[in-house]
Write a structure and sequence with these properties.
- This protein is of the alpha+beta class and 149 residues long.
- Helix content is 17%, strand content 30%.
- It contains 2 helices and 9 strands; from the N terminus they run E-H-E-E-E-E-H-E-E-E-E.
- The strands form 2 sheets. Strands 5, 6, 7, 8 and 9 form a 5-stranded mixed sheet that branches. It has a 4-stranded mixed sheet with strand order 1-4-3-2, with helices on one face.
- The protein is globular and about 50 Å long.
Length: 149
């Protein structure tokens, strides 16, 4: 049996705010929504079909807590370093909080890298590419960049 990721579910504190972020800034397509008072959710896809990639559940009572067991960060893959920079620009215009300034490498000497930032509830996110970040700085010379932001 081979497993692969079906979708990722995130608890959020404000569905409307999070939906606007993931839809309008990151470009996810809304596949389905539930907006009943006590059961608010959204299924989001990547725009290539009707399979959910990310689900948002309005069940969070506070911001993301990096010190608790559970999700460390959520990483998205882009098709080019230019596309990563476009996301960086859109996130900057939105006012997103970045962990590092600009594109950074995943580790010293790596060709892979990307941007690291937080969603409206503080969940740590990454958009990266496998190549194109050869000349990008490395914030943590002796540890993976994505592990300690």
């Amino acid at each position: 049996m081979t497993l692969h990721t079906g979708h990722v579910g995130l608890n959020v504190t404000d569905l409307d705010r999070s939906l606007a972020f993931y839809r309008d800034v990151l470009g996810f397509a809304v596949l389905a929504e539930g907006k009943e008072d006590d059961r608010r959710y959204a299924f989001l896809g990547d725009g290539t079909g009707d399979h959910p990639v990310l689900t948002l559940w309005q069940q969070g009572q506070g911001p993301y807590d990096r010190d608790r067991a559970g999700l460390h960060h959520l990483a998205f893959a882009a098709d080019s370093i230019e596309r990563v920079r476009q996301y960086e620009e859109a996130l900057g215009a939105y006012g997103a909080e970045f962990a590092y300034e600009g594109v950074v490498a995943h580790r010293e000497g790596a060709a892979s890298g990307g941007i690291f930032f937080h969603d409206p509830d503080g969940t740590r996110l990454e958009i990266s590419v496998p190549t194109g970040a050869e000349d990008a700085p490395t914030p943590n010379a002796d540890a993976p960049t994505c592990g300690f932001f």
